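User: My collaborator sent over this chain with a note saying "see what the structure looks like." That's all I know about it. Can you take a look?
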Amino acid sequence: MPRQWKTKTFKSGNSVAVRLPKSAGLTEGDDVILVPHDDGSFSFWREQDGARVLDSLFGAFSAGFMAEGRGDIEQAERDWDGQPRAA
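Assistant: Without extra context I'll predict from the sequence alone. Here is the result:
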């Protein structure tokens, strides 16, 4: 099981903040990406680790994912000027 920490939120100016232990691996001034999920949970990582996080997400797909491609998908012509085309 990954390490976990318990903490409390606190008010900092007009924001809500979370204090993280040094052992979490963040340092002062790190740019952090925070992603809220539909279930109320959050994920976060250092911005500099974004490529590694993306790679780990791709590793989460099964070995056979899209092995047969996407299949035939009909797509309407697009008018890149923003005006809908008559069919």
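A starting point for your reply to your collaborator: The two ends are 56 Å apart (CA to CA).
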